[in-house]
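Lecture 7 notes. Example A: sequence first, then its C-alpha coordinates.
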Amino acid sequence: MYKKVWFVGIMLVQGFISQAQIKVLFDATKAETAGCADWVIDSDTYNLGWAPNGYVNANNWRSNAQRVPSPPQSQITSTTTEDFWTGGISAWGVDCAKKGYTVETLPYNGSITYNNTANPQDLSNYDVYIVVEPNILFTTAQKTAIMQFVQNGGGLFMISDHTISDRNFDNYDSPVIWNDLMSANSVQTNPFGITFDLADFSGTSSSVVAAANDPIIHGTAGNVTKVQWANGTSMTLTPTANSSVKAVVYRTGTNSGNNNVLVAYATFGSGKVVAIGDSSPTDDGTGNPNASTNNCTLYNGYTSDASGNHQRLLMNATIWLTTPVLANPEFNLQNAAISLGQNPIDAQQIQLNNASMVAIDRFQLFGLDGKLIDSRTIDSSDLEINISLAQALHSGMYLLKLFQGNEAVTLKCVVK
Protein backbone atom coordinates (compact mmCIF):
# COMPACT_ATOMS: atom_id res chain seq x y z
CA MET A 1 0.00 0.00 0.00
CA TYR A 2 1.32 3.44 -0.94
CA LYS A 3 0.22 6.56 0.84
CA LYS A 4 1.13 10.14 0.18
CA VAL A 5 1.57 12.98 2.62
CA TRP A 6 0.47 16.38 1.38
CA PHE A 7 1.79 19.57 2.95
CA VAL A 8 -0.95 22.08 3.73
CA GLY A 9 0.98 24.81 5.49
CA ILE A 10 4.48 26.12 6.16
CA MET A 11 5.62 28.38 8.96
CA LEU A 12 9.01 29.59 10.12
CA VAL A 13 9.70 28.37 13.63
CA GLN A 14 13.01 30.13 14.22
CA GLY A 15 12.73 33.86 13.60
CA PHE A 16 8.97 33.55 12.97
CA ILE A 17 7.41 36.76 11.64
CA SER A 18 4.44 37.61 13.85
CA GLN A 19 1.33 39.30 12.50
CA ALA A 20 2.12 42.42 14.53
CA GLN A 21 5.34 42.81 12.56
CA ILE A 22 3.77 42.34 9.15
CA LYS A 23 3.55 45.57 7.17
CA VAL A 24 1.30 46.01 4.15
CA LEU A 25 1.84 48.94 1.77
CA PHE A 26 -0.93 50.15 -0.55
CA ASP A 27 0.32 52.18 -3.51
CA ALA A 28 -1.10 55.61 -4.43
CA THR A 29 1.70 56.86 -6.69
CA LYS A 30 0.26 55.62 -10.00
CA ALA A 31 -2.91 57.73 -10.32
CA GLU A 32 -5.02 55.17 -8.49
CA THR A 33 -7.60 57.91 -7.88
CA ALA A 34 -7.79 59.16 -11.47
CA GLY A 35 -11.19 59.28 -13.16
CA CYS A 36 -13.85 57.70 -10.93
CA ALA A 37 -11.37 55.33 -9.28
CA ASP A 38 -10.60 55.74 -5.59
CA TRP A 39 -8.25 52.85 -4.90
CA VAL A 40 -6.86 54.06 -1.57
CA ILE A 41 -7.52 52.87 1.99
CA ASP A 42 -7.86 56.36 3.47
CA SER A 43 -7.69 60.01 2.51
CA ASP A 44 -8.18 63.13 4.62
CA THR A 45 -7.47 65.71 1.90
CA TYR A 46 -8.14 65.98 -1.80
CA ASN A 47 -6.11 67.17 -4.78
CA LEU A 48 -7.19 68.55 -8.12
CA GLY A 49 -7.78 65.73 -10.58
CA TRP A 50 -6.73 65.24 -14.16
CA ALA A 51 -8.81 66.62 -17.01
CA PRO A 52 -8.79 65.23 -20.59
CA ASN A 53 -6.43 68.00 -21.76
CA GLY A 54 -3.80 66.91 -19.26
CA TYR A 55 -4.30 69.84 -16.91
CA VAL A 56 -5.93 69.91 -13.50
CA ASN A 57 -9.65 70.48 -13.38
CA ALA A 58 -10.93 72.77 -10.61
CA ASN A 59 -14.18 70.79 -10.45
CA ASN A 60 -12.48 67.41 -10.33
CA TRP A 61 -11.16 66.72 -6.81
CA ARG A 62 -9.31 63.47 -6.19
CA SER A 63 -8.34 61.66 -3.01
CA ASN A 64 -4.90 62.56 -1.68
CA ALA A 65 -4.01 59.56 0.47
CA GLN A 66 -1.59 60.12 3.33
CA ARG A 67 0.99 57.63 4.58
CA VAL A 68 -0.71 56.69 7.85
CA PRO A 69 -4.49 56.27 7.82
CA SER A 70 -6.52 58.08 10.44
CA PRO A 71 -8.04 57.55 12.95
CA PRO A 72 -5.14 55.31 14.06
CA GLN A 73 -5.54 51.64 13.33
CA SER A 74 -4.83 50.86 16.98
CA GLN A 75 -8.49 51.78 17.55
CA ILE A 76 -9.74 49.09 15.15
CA THR A 77 -11.55 46.17 16.73
CA SER A 78 -13.23 43.06 15.36
CA THR A 79 -16.47 45.03 14.93
CA THR A 80 -15.01 48.11 13.21
CA THR A 81 -16.76 48.94 9.93
CA GLU A 82 -15.04 50.02 6.73
CA ASP A 83 -16.21 53.65 7.05
CA PHE A 84 -13.71 54.01 9.91
CA TRP A 85 -11.46 55.21 7.07
CA THR A 86 -12.37 57.12 3.91
CA GLY A 87 -11.25 55.34 0.77
CA GLY A 88 -12.62 53.19 -2.00
CA ILE A 89 -10.73 50.16 -0.67
CA SER A 90 -10.92 51.02 3.03
CA ALA A 91 -12.77 47.76 3.78
CA TRP A 92 -9.70 45.82 2.64
CA GLY A 93 -7.41 48.03 4.72
CA VAL A 94 -9.59 47.64 7.81
CA ASP A 95 -9.64 43.85 7.35
CA CYS A 96 -5.83 43.85 7.20
CA ALA A 97 -5.69 45.89 10.41
CA LYS A 98 -8.06 43.40 12.06
CA LYS A 99 -5.51 40.70 11.24
CA GLY A 100 -2.93 42.68 13.19
CA TYR A 101 -1.06 43.90 10.11
CA THR A 102 0.35 47.42 10.00
CA VAL A 103 -1.09 49.15 6.93
CA GLU A 104 0.24 52.22 5.20
CA THR A 105 -0.13 54.06 1.90
CA LEU A 106 2.66 55.18 -0.39
CA PRO A 107 1.35 58.70 -1.22
CA TYR A 108 1.21 60.17 -4.71
CA ASN A 109 4.58 61.89 -4.12
CA GLY A 110 6.20 58.84 -2.51
CA SER A 111 9.17 56.95 -3.96
CA ILE A 112 9.23 53.32 -5.08
CA THR A 113 12.69 52.09 -4.10
CA TYR A 114 14.34 48.97 -2.74
CA ASN A 115 17.23 49.02 -0.25
CA ASN A 116 17.36 52.81 -0.20
CA THR A 117 17.96 53.64 3.46
CA ALA A 118 17.15 57.31 2.82
CA ASN A 119 13.55 56.41 1.94
CA PRO A 120 11.47 55.65 5.08
CA GLN A 121 8.92 53.89 2.85
CA ASP A 122 11.44 51.79 0.99
CA LEU A 123 9.88 48.49 -0.10
CA SER A 124 12.40 46.57 2.03
CA ASN A 125 10.48 47.85 5.08
CA TYR A 126 7.29 46.04 4.02
CA ASP A 127 6.12 42.47 3.57
CA VAL A 128 3.36 43.06 1.01
CA TYR A 129 3.01 45.71 -1.71
CA ILE A 130 -0.50 46.12 -3.15
CA VAL A 131 -1.09 48.08 -6.36
CA VAL A 132 -4.70 48.40 -7.51
CA GLU A 133 -5.05 49.42 -11.16
CA PRO A 134 -1.98 51.58 -11.81
CA ASN A 135 -2.48 54.30 -14.41
CA ILE A 136 1.11 55.52 -14.83
CA LEU A 137 4.01 53.45 -16.19
CA PHE A 138 6.65 52.31 -13.74
CA THR A 139 10.05 53.85 -14.44
CA THR A 140 13.07 51.67 -15.10
CA ALA A 141 14.33 52.21 -11.55
CA GLN A 142 10.90 51.49 -10.07
CA LYS A 143 10.59 48.25 -12.04
CA THR A 144 13.97 47.11 -10.77
CA ALA A 145 12.96 47.97 -7.20
CA ILE A 146 9.70 46.00 -7.44
CA MET A 147 11.39 42.99 -9.01
CA GLN A 148 14.11 42.95 -6.36
CA PHE A 149 11.49 43.32 -3.62
CA VAL A 150 9.73 40.16 -4.79
CA GLN A 151 12.91 38.27 -5.57
CA ASN A 152 14.15 38.88 -2.03
CA GLY A 153 11.03 37.75 -0.22
CA GLY A 154 8.35 40.41 -0.73
CA GLY A 155 4.74 39.78 -1.68
CA LEU A 156 3.33 41.68 -4.68
CA PHE A 157 -0.42 41.95 -5.35
CA MET A 158 -1.04 42.98 -8.98
CA ILE A 159 -4.58 44.14 -9.71
CA SER A 160 -5.47 45.11 -13.25
CA ASP A 161 -8.58 46.32 -15.02
CA HIS A 162 -9.97 46.05 -18.53
CA THR A 163 -8.25 47.32 -21.66
CA ILE A 164 -8.86 50.93 -22.70
CA SER A 165 -9.23 51.98 -19.06
CA ASP A 166 -6.80 54.89 -19.22
CA ARG A 167 -8.24 57.05 -16.45
CA ASN A 168 -5.62 59.82 -16.49
CA PHE A 169 -5.40 60.12 -20.30
CA ASP A 170 -1.68 59.41 -20.62
CA ASN A 171 -2.24 56.60 -23.17
CA TYR A 172 -1.41 53.79 -20.73
CA ASP A 173 -3.88 51.60 -18.85
CA SER A 174 -3.30 48.96 -16.20
CA PRO A 175 -2.96 45.83 -18.41
CA VAL A 176 -0.30 47.58 -20.49
CA ILE A 177 1.44 48.94 -17.39
CA TRP A 178 1.61 45.55 -15.67
CA ASN A 179 2.80 43.84 -18.84
CA ASP A 180 5.49 46.50 -19.25
CA LEU A 181 6.72 45.78 -15.72
CA MET A 182 7.01 42.08 -16.48
CA SER A 183 8.37 42.29 -20.02
CA ALA A 184 10.76 45.22 -19.84
CA ASN A 185 12.63 45.12 -16.55
CA SER A 186 16.31 44.70 -15.77
CA VAL A 187 15.89 41.55 -13.67
CA GLN A 188 14.05 38.93 -15.74
CA THR A 189 11.62 38.82 -18.64
CA ASN A 190 8.21 37.37 -17.76
CA PRO A 191 9.40 36.51 -14.25
CA PHE A 192 6.01 35.43 -12.94
CA GLY A 193 4.74 33.60 -16.02
CA ILE A 194 1.75 35.99 -16.16
CA THR A 195 0.54 38.27 -18.95
CA PHE A 196 -2.62 40.37 -18.74
CA ASP A 197 -4.88 40.08 -21.76
CA LEU A 198 -6.11 43.21 -23.56
CA ALA A 199 -9.76 42.33 -22.99
CA ASP A 200 -12.91 43.85 -21.52
CA PHE A 201 -15.76 41.69 -20.25
CA SER A 202 -18.20 41.30 -17.36
CA GLY A 203 -19.82 38.30 -15.76
CA THR A 204 -19.87 35.90 -12.83
CA SER A 205 -17.65 32.83 -12.88
CA SER A 206 -17.85 29.75 -10.68
CA SER A 207 -14.98 28.10 -12.56
CA VAL A 208 -12.84 27.64 -9.46
CA VAL A 209 -10.25 24.87 -9.51
CA ALA A 210 -10.88 21.86 -7.31
CA ALA A 211 -7.94 22.11 -4.92
CA ALA A 212 -8.91 21.38 -1.33
CA ASN A 213 -5.75 22.80 0.21
CA ASP A 214 -5.20 25.79 -2.07
CA PRO A 215 -4.29 28.84 0.08
CA ILE A 216 -6.06 31.33 -2.20
CA ILE A 217 -9.31 29.42 -2.76
CA HIS A 218 -9.52 27.66 0.61
CA GLY A 219 -7.49 29.89 2.90
CA THR A 220 -8.11 30.93 6.48
CA ALA A 221 -10.42 33.77 5.39
CA GLY A 222 -12.87 31.22 3.94
CA ASN A 223 -13.72 29.34 0.78
CA VAL A 224 -13.99 31.11 -2.57
CA THR A 225 -16.64 29.68 -4.85
CA LYS A 226 -17.10 32.40 -7.47
CA VAL A 227 -16.02 35.85 -8.64
CA GLN A 228 -17.82 38.63 -10.47
CA TRP A 229 -16.03 40.77 -13.02
CA ALA A 230 -17.49 44.21 -13.86
CA ASN A 231 -15.47 45.21 -16.92
CA GLY A 232 -12.26 43.37 -16.20
CA THR A 233 -9.72 41.33 -18.08
CA SER A 234 -8.15 37.88 -18.00
CA MET A 235 -4.60 36.55 -18.04
CA THR A 236 -2.50 34.12 -20.03
CA LEU A 237 0.00 32.01 -18.12
CA THR A 238 3.39 30.75 -19.30
CA PRO A 239 4.60 27.90 -17.07
CA THR A 240 7.76 27.59 -19.16
CA ALA A 241 8.73 31.04 -17.88
CA ASN A 242 7.78 30.26 -14.26
CA SER A 243 6.89 26.68 -13.37
CA SER A 244 5.23 27.74 -10.10
CA VAL A 245 2.50 29.85 -11.72
CA LYS A 246 -0.97 28.53 -11.00
CA ALA A 247 -4.47 29.46 -12.14
CA VAL A 248 -7.22 29.14 -9.52
CA VAL A 249 -10.18 30.87 -11.21
CA TYR A 250 -11.05 30.78 -14.90
CA ARG A 251 -13.52 32.75 -16.97
CA THR A 252 -15.16 29.51 -18.13
CA GLY A 253 -14.45 25.90 -17.23
CA THR A 254 -11.69 24.66 -14.95
CA ASN A 255 -9.70 22.91 -17.68
CA SER A 256 -8.79 26.00 -19.67
CA GLY A 257 -5.09 25.43 -19.14
CA ASN A 258 -3.16 28.64 -19.36
CA ASN A 259 -5.82 30.84 -20.98
CA ASN A 260 -8.82 32.84 -19.76
CA VAL A 261 -7.41 33.00 -16.23
CA LEU A 262 -9.07 35.42 -13.79
CA VAL A 263 -6.97 34.77 -10.66
CA ALA A 264 -3.41 33.41 -10.57
CA TYR A 265 -0.43 33.28 -8.26
CA ALA A 266 3.25 32.33 -8.35
CA THR A 267 6.50 32.41 -6.46
CA PHE A 268 9.61 34.18 -7.71
CA GLY A 269 12.91 33.90 -5.91
CA SER A 270 12.05 34.08 -2.22
CA GLY A 271 8.89 36.08 -2.85
CA LYS A 272 5.32 35.68 -4.01
CA VAL A 273 2.90 37.26 -6.48
CA VAL A 274 -0.89 37.25 -6.79
CA ALA A 275 -2.67 38.68 -9.83
CA ILE A 276 -6.32 39.35 -10.62
CA GLY A 277 -7.83 40.94 -13.72
CA ASP A 278 -10.40 43.36 -12.30
CA SER A 279 -10.31 46.19 -9.76
CA SER A 280 -14.04 46.01 -9.07
CA PRO A 281 -13.71 43.25 -6.40
CA THR A 282 -11.60 45.65 -4.29
CA ASP A 283 -14.18 48.48 -4.33
CA ASP A 284 -16.18 48.78 -1.11
CA GLY A 285 -18.70 51.28 -2.51
CA THR A 286 -17.54 54.26 -0.45
CA GLY A 287 -14.66 56.69 -0.57
CA ASN A 288 -14.20 60.19 -1.92
CA PRO A 289 -17.15 62.30 -0.68
CA ASN A 290 -16.85 64.36 -3.89
CA ALA A 291 -17.66 61.32 -6.02
CA SER A 292 -21.28 62.24 -6.64
CA THR A 293 -20.43 65.80 -7.67
CA ASN A 294 -17.91 64.36 -10.13
CA ASN A 295 -20.65 62.19 -11.66
CA CYS A 296 -19.06 59.05 -10.25
CA THR A 297 -21.07 56.10 -8.98
CA LEU A 298 -19.52 53.81 -6.39
CA TYR A 299 -20.22 50.07 -6.24
CA ASN A 300 -19.62 47.60 -3.44
CA GLY A 301 -17.70 44.80 -5.09
CA TYR A 302 -15.86 43.79 -1.92
CA THR A 303 -18.74 42.30 0.06
CA SER A 304 -21.91 42.67 -2.07
CA ASP A 305 -20.82 41.30 -5.45
CA ALA A 306 -20.34 37.52 -5.62
CA SER A 307 -21.95 37.06 -2.18
CA GLY A 308 -18.87 38.07 -0.21
CA ASN A 309 -16.46 35.86 -2.14
CA HIS A 310 -14.28 38.82 -3.08
CA GLN A 311 -13.55 39.65 0.54
CA ARG A 312 -12.47 36.06 1.14
CA LEU A 313 -10.42 35.99 -2.07
CA LEU A 314 -8.53 39.20 -1.36
CA MET A 315 -7.85 38.37 2.27
CA ASN A 316 -6.75 34.80 1.51
CA ALA A 317 -4.35 36.20 -1.09
CA THR A 318 -3.05 38.88 1.29
CA ILE A 319 -2.51 36.34 4.06
CA TRP A 320 -0.64 34.04 1.67
CA LEU A 321 1.55 36.92 0.50
CA THR A 322 2.52 37.74 4.09
CA THR A 323 3.89 34.23 4.64
CA PRO A 324 7.55 33.95 3.62
CA VAL A 325 8.49 31.20 1.18
CA LEU A 326 11.52 30.56 3.42
CA ALA A 327 14.03 32.86 5.05
CA ASN A 328 17.01 30.94 3.67
CA PRO A 329 16.74 29.97 -0.01
CA GLU A 330 19.07 27.03 0.65
CA PHE A 331 16.53 25.66 3.12
CA ASN A 332 13.90 25.05 0.47
CA LEU A 333 11.05 22.63 1.16
CA GLN A 334 9.00 23.39 -1.92
CA ASN A 335 9.79 20.09 -3.64
CA ALA A 336 9.97 17.84 -0.60
CA ALA A 337 7.74 14.77 -0.60
CA ILE A 338 6.80 12.16 2.00
CA SER A 339 5.53 8.69 1.19
CA LEU A 340 4.52 5.64 3.19
CA GLY A 341 6.02 2.47 1.77
CA GLN A 342 5.43 -1.29 2.18
CA ASN A 343 8.94 -2.63 2.64
CA PRO A 344 9.01 -2.81 5.56
CA ILE A 345 5.42 -1.96 6.45
CA ASP A 346 6.56 -0.08 9.55
CA ALA A 347 8.93 2.25 7.69
CA GLN A 348 8.01 5.87 7.05
CA GLN A 349 10.07 7.13 4.16
CA ILE A 350 10.76 10.82 3.76
CA GLN A 351 11.97 11.56 0.25
CA LEU A 352 13.74 14.91 -0.13
CA ASN A 353 13.62 15.61 -3.84
CA ASN A 354 15.38 18.96 -3.80
CA ALA A 355 19.17 18.80 -3.77
CA SER A 356 19.27 21.87 -1.51
CA MET A 357 17.75 19.70 1.22
CA VAL A 358 21.10 18.05 1.94
CA ALA A 359 21.81 20.77 4.50
CA ILE A 360 19.11 19.45 6.85
CA ASP A 361 20.74 17.87 9.89
CA ARG A 362 17.86 16.55 12.01
CA PHE A 363 14.11 16.15 12.11
CA GLN A 364 11.18 15.61 14.46
CA LEU A 365 7.81 14.05 13.64
CA PHE A 366 4.77 14.86 15.79
CA GLY A 367 1.12 13.91 15.89
CA LEU A 368 -1.21 16.89 16.17
CA ASP A 369 -1.86 15.84 19.77
CA GLY A 370 1.70 17.00 20.40
CA LYS A 371 3.13 13.52 20.92
CA LEU A 372 6.63 13.14 19.53
CA ILE A 373 6.66 10.15 17.17
CA ASP A 374 10.31 10.18 16.12
CA SER A 375 13.32 12.47 16.47
CA ARG A 376 16.91 12.02 15.41
CA THR A 377 19.96 13.43 13.68
CA ILE A 378 20.49 12.41 10.05
CA ASP A 379 23.40 12.28 7.66
CA SER A 380 23.40 15.63 5.87
CA SER A 381 24.26 13.87 2.60
CA ASP A 382 21.07 11.78 2.65
CA LEU A 383 18.10 12.72 0.51
CA GLU A 384 16.07 9.84 1.86
CA ILE A 385 15.13 9.22 5.50
CA ASN A 386 13.73 5.93 6.78
CA ILE A 387 11.89 6.23 10.07
CA SER A 388 11.36 2.97 11.97
CA LEU A 389 8.01 3.00 13.74
CA ALA A 390 6.14 0.56 15.91
CA GLN A 391 3.44 0.66 13.27
CA ALA A 392 2.75 2.44 10.00
CA LEU A 393 1.33 5.93 10.17
CA HIS A 394 -2.43 5.96 9.88
CA SER A 395 -4.29 8.45 7.72
CA GLY A 396 -4.49 11.78 9.50
CA MET A 397 -2.65 14.99 10.32
CA TYR A 398 1.02 15.21 11.36
CA LEU A 399 3.70 17.82 11.89
CA LEU A 400 7.19 17.36 10.47
CA LYS A 401 9.87 19.71 11.80
CA LEU A 402 13.11 19.92 9.84
CA PHE A 403 16.21 21.61 11.27
CA GLN A 404 19.16 23.31 9.64
CA GLY A 405 21.49 24.62 12.31
CA ASN A 406 19.48 27.00 14.48
CA GLU A 407 16.77 27.39 11.85
CA ALA A 408 13.67 25.20 11.69
CA VAL A 409 10.67 24.81 9.45
CA THR A 410 7.46 23.03 10.41
CA LEU A 411 5.32 21.34 7.76
CA LYS A 412 1.71 20.52 8.47
CA CYS A 413 0.91 17.39 6.50
CA VAL A 414 -1.89 14.96 5.76
CA VAL A 415 -1.35 11.23 5.33
CA LYS A 416 -3.88 9.89 2.84
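Example B, a different protein, same format:
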Amino acid sequence: MKTNQKPYVMYGIFIVNTLVFAAQYLLPQLHVEQQLGMFSPSVAFRHEYWRFVTPMFIHFGLMHFVLNAVVLVYMGKQCELIFGHGRFALVYFLSGVMGNLASFAFNNPTTLSGGASTALFGLFGAFLVIGWHFRDNPAMQALTKQFALFIVLNFAFGIFDTTIDLWGHLGGVIGGALMGEITALPVLKERFAPRSRITAGIFFIFFAVICVLLGFKKLGLPV
Protein backbone atom coordinates (compact mmCIF):
# COMPACT_ATOMS: atom_id res chain seq x y z
CA MET A 1 0.00 0.00 0.00
CA LYS A 2 1.31 3.46 -0.86
CA THR A 3 1.98 5.70 2.10
CA ASN A 4 0.12 8.63 0.52
CA GLN A 5 -3.19 6.76 0.71
CA LYS A 6 -5.60 7.61 3.50
CA PRO A 7 -6.67 5.12 6.21
CA TYR A 8 -10.30 5.04 5.07
CA VAL A 9 -11.19 1.91 7.02
CA MET A 10 -9.95 3.41 10.27
CA TYR A 11 -11.92 6.61 9.60
CA GLY A 12 -15.03 4.56 8.88
CA ILE A 13 -14.69 2.60 12.12
CA PHE A 14 -14.16 5.82 14.05
CA ILE A 15 -17.30 7.37 12.55
CA VAL A 16 -19.44 4.31 13.34
CA ASN A 17 -18.11 4.17 16.92
CA THR A 18 -18.89 7.87 17.35
CA LEU A 19 -22.41 7.55 15.97
CA VAL A 20 -23.17 4.56 18.18
CA PHE A 21 -21.83 6.33 21.25
CA ALA A 22 -23.93 9.39 20.39
CA ALA A 23 -26.99 7.16 20.20
CA GLN A 24 -26.13 5.68 23.59
CA TYR A 25 -25.82 9.15 25.11
CA LEU A 26 -28.69 10.95 23.36
CA LEU A 27 -31.18 8.09 23.16
CA PRO A 28 -30.80 6.12 26.39
CA GLN A 29 -34.29 4.69 25.92
CA LEU A 30 -32.90 2.52 23.11
CA HIS A 31 -30.71 0.62 25.61
CA VAL A 32 -27.99 0.24 22.98
CA GLU A 33 -25.57 -1.42 25.39
CA GLN A 34 -28.07 -4.11 26.31
CA GLN A 35 -29.01 -4.69 22.67
CA LEU A 36 -25.49 -4.84 21.22
CA GLY A 37 -23.13 -5.81 24.07
CA MET A 38 -21.69 -9.26 24.66
CA PHE A 39 -24.12 -10.97 27.02
CA SER A 40 -23.66 -14.74 27.00
CA PRO A 41 -27.26 -15.77 27.83
CA SER A 42 -28.61 -13.72 24.91
CA VAL A 43 -26.25 -15.50 22.53
CA ALA A 44 -26.89 -18.99 23.89
CA PHE A 45 -30.63 -18.88 24.60
CA ARG A 46 -31.89 -16.24 22.15
CA HIS A 47 -29.41 -16.96 19.33
CA GLU A 48 -28.33 -13.33 19.03
CA TYR A 49 -25.08 -14.19 17.28
CA TRP A 50 -24.54 -10.63 16.09
CA ARG A 51 -23.21 -10.01 19.60
CA PHE A 52 -19.92 -11.54 18.52
CA VAL A 53 -19.48 -8.44 16.31
CA THR A 54 -21.51 -5.52 17.66
CA PRO A 55 -19.75 -5.17 21.06
CA MET A 56 -16.81 -3.66 19.16
CA PHE A 57 -18.91 -0.55 18.51
CA ILE A 58 -20.29 0.24 21.97
CA HIS A 59 -18.62 1.90 24.97
CA PHE A 60 -19.46 2.31 28.61
CA GLY A 61 -19.01 5.99 29.39
CA LEU A 62 -17.17 8.93 27.87
CA MET A 63 -13.72 7.99 29.17
CA HIS A 64 -14.00 4.47 27.76
CA PHE A 65 -14.95 5.88 24.36
CA VAL A 66 -12.26 8.60 24.33
CA LEU A 67 -9.43 6.24 25.32
CA ASN A 68 -10.33 3.71 22.65
CA ALA A 69 -10.85 6.44 20.06
CA VAL A 70 -7.39 7.90 20.71
CA VAL A 71 -5.76 4.47 20.40
CA LEU A 72 -7.76 3.68 17.25
CA VAL A 73 -6.68 6.88 15.53
CA TYR A 74 -3.06 6.70 16.67
CA MET A 75 -2.43 3.03 15.99
CA GLY A 76 -5.09 2.29 13.39
CA LYS A 77 -3.70 4.92 11.04
CA GLN A 78 -0.23 3.38 11.13
CA CYS A 79 -1.44 -0.21 10.93
CA GLU A 80 -3.72 0.44 7.96
CA LEU A 81 -0.92 2.12 6.04
CA ILE A 82 1.30 -0.91 6.70
CA PHE A 83 -1.24 -3.72 6.23
CA GLY A 84 -3.36 -2.13 3.51
CA HIS A 85 -7.11 -1.51 3.64
CA GLY A 86 -8.35 -5.08 3.22
CA ARG A 87 -5.84 -6.75 5.51
CA PHE A 88 -6.37 -4.10 8.16
CA ALA A 89 -10.14 -4.65 8.08
CA LEU A 90 -9.71 -8.43 8.35
CA VAL A 91 -7.29 -8.17 11.27
CA TYR A 92 -9.41 -5.61 13.11
CA PHE A 93 -12.79 -7.29 12.82
CA LEU A 94 -11.79 -10.96 13.07
CA SER A 95 -9.53 -10.40 16.07
CA GLY A 96 -12.37 -8.39 17.65
CA VAL A 97 -14.69 -11.33 17.06
CA MET A 98 -12.14 -13.64 18.68
CA GLY A 99 -12.03 -11.33 21.69
CA ASN A 100 -15.80 -11.47 22.00
CA LEU A 101 -15.72 -15.25 21.62
CA ALA A 102 -13.29 -15.39 24.54
CA SER A 103 -15.64 -13.19 26.58
CA PHE A 104 -18.50 -15.54 25.71
CA ALA A 105 -16.48 -18.57 26.79
CA PHE A 106 -14.78 -17.39 29.97
CA ASN A 107 -16.57 -14.38 31.49
CA ASN A 108 -19.22 -14.70 34.19
CA PRO A 109 -22.60 -15.34 32.48
CA THR A 110 -24.01 -12.16 34.03
CA THR A 111 -21.27 -9.96 32.52
CA LEU A 112 -22.21 -7.40 29.87
CA SER A 113 -19.09 -6.40 27.95
CA GLY A 114 -18.22 -4.24 24.99
CA GLY A 115 -15.71 -1.84 23.54
CA ALA A 116 -13.33 -1.50 20.62
CA SER A 117 -10.49 -2.77 22.78
CA THR A 118 -10.93 -6.40 21.69
CA ALA A 119 -10.16 -5.33 18.12
CA LEU A 120 -7.49 -2.85 19.19
CA PHE A 121 -5.69 -5.55 21.14
CA GLY A 122 -5.96 -7.61 17.98
CA LEU A 123 -4.01 -4.94 16.15
CA PHE A 124 -1.38 -5.13 18.89
CA GLY A 125 -1.14 -8.89 18.51
CA ALA A 126 -0.89 -8.68 14.73
CA PHE A 127 1.83 -6.08 14.90
CA LEU A 128 3.84 -8.15 17.35
CA VAL A 129 3.89 -10.90 14.73
CA ILE A 130 4.89 -8.41 12.04
CA GLY A 131 7.63 -7.14 14.32
CA TRP A 132 8.92 -10.68 14.72
CA HIS A 133 9.12 -11.18 10.95
CA PHE A 134 10.82 -7.79 10.48
CA ARG A 135 13.32 -8.00 13.33
CA ASP A 136 15.91 -6.30 11.11
CA ASN A 137 13.75 -3.21 10.51
CA PRO A 138 14.37 -0.47 13.13
CA ALA A 139 11.14 1.40 12.35
CA MET A 140 9.04 -1.75 12.76
CA GLN A 141 10.85 -2.58 15.98
CA ALA A 142 10.20 0.88 17.41
CA LEU A 143 6.46 0.59 16.72
CA THR A 144 6.38 -2.96 18.05
CA LYS A 145 7.94 -1.85 21.34
CA GLN A 146 5.37 0.95 21.70
CA PHE A 147 2.48 -1.42 21.11
CA ALA A 148 3.97 -4.11 23.38
CA LEU A 149 4.31 -1.58 26.21
CA PHE A 150 0.65 -0.64 25.77
CA ILE A 151 -0.38 -4.29 26.07
CA VAL A 152 1.62 -4.79 29.25
CA LEU A 153 0.23 -1.62 30.85
CA ASN A 154 -3.36 -2.51 29.96
CA PHE A 155 -3.06 -6.00 31.39
CA ALA A 156 -1.39 -4.58 34.51
CA PHE A 157 -4.21 -2.08 35.05
CA GLY A 158 -6.74 -4.81 34.35
CA ILE A 159 -5.52 -6.85 37.30
CA PHE A 160 -6.73 -4.10 39.64
CA ASP A 161 -9.74 -2.92 37.61
CA THR A 162 -12.57 -5.45 37.59
CA THR A 163 -14.44 -3.49 34.90
CA ILE A 164 -11.82 -4.34 32.27
CA ASP A 165 -12.60 -7.42 30.16
CA LEU A 166 -9.28 -9.23 30.39
CA TRP A 167 -10.62 -12.28 28.59
CA GLY A 168 -11.76 -10.09 25.71
CA HIS A 169 -8.34 -8.45 25.52
CA LEU A 170 -6.52 -11.79 25.66
CA GLY A 171 -8.76 -13.25 22.97
CA GLY A 172 -8.16 -10.17 20.84
CA VAL A 173 -4.38 -10.49 21.16
CA ILE A 174 -4.46 -14.17 20.22
CA GLY A 175 -6.83 -13.57 17.32
CA GLY A 176 -4.76 -10.63 16.11
CA ALA A 177 -1.49 -12.54 16.29
CA LEU A 178 -2.98 -15.38 14.23
CA MET A 179 -4.53 -12.95 11.74
CA GLY A 180 -1.23 -11.11 11.42
CA GLU A 181 0.39 -14.38 10.33
CA ILE A 182 -2.52 -15.34 8.06
CA THR A 183 -2.80 -12.05 6.19
CA ALA A 184 0.94 -11.25 6.05
CA LEU A 185 1.85 -7.93 4.38
CA PRO A 186 1.33 -6.74 0.81
CA VAL A 187 5.13 -6.51 0.44
CA LEU A 188 7.88 -9.03 1.27
CA LYS A 189 5.40 -11.91 1.52
CA GLU A 190 8.32 -14.34 1.31
CA ARG A 191 8.95 -13.68 4.99
CA PHE A 192 5.66 -15.42 5.80
CA ALA A 193 5.96 -19.12 5.01
CA PRO A 194 2.79 -20.62 3.45
CA ARG A 195 2.86 -23.48 5.97
CA SER A 196 2.88 -21.09 8.94
CA ARG A 197 0.02 -19.06 7.44
CA ILE A 198 -2.08 -22.19 6.94
CA THR A 199 -1.27 -23.39 10.46
CA ALA A 200 -2.31 -20.02 11.90
CA GLY A 201 -5.62 -20.29 10.03
CA ILE A 202 -6.25 -23.75 11.47
CA PHE A 203 -5.51 -22.53 15.00
CA PHE A 204 -7.81 -19.54 14.52
CA ILE A 205 -10.71 -21.80 13.58
CA PHE A 206 -9.83 -24.22 16.40
CA PHE A 207 -9.84 -21.49 19.08
CA ALA A 208 -13.09 -20.03 17.75
CA VAL A 209 -14.84 -23.41 17.90
CA ILE A 210 -13.50 -24.16 21.38
CA CYS A 211 -14.73 -20.79 22.68
CA VAL A 212 -18.20 -21.39 21.27
CA LEU A 213 -18.39 -24.87 22.82
CA LEU A 214 -17.13 -23.65 26.20
CA GLY A 215 -19.61 -20.78 26.16
CA PHE A 216 -22.56 -23.11 25.63
CA LYS A 217 -21.22 -25.59 28.17
CA LYS A 218 -20.83 -22.82 30.75
CA LEU A 219 -24.53 -22.12 30.49
CA GLY A 220 -25.47 -25.76 30.86
CA LEU A 221 -26.40 -26.36 27.23
CA PRO A 222 -25.46 -29.59 25.41
CA VAL A 223 -22.47 -29.35 23.11
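Note on Example B: Residues 194-218 form the longest helix (25 residues). The longest strand covers residues 38-39.
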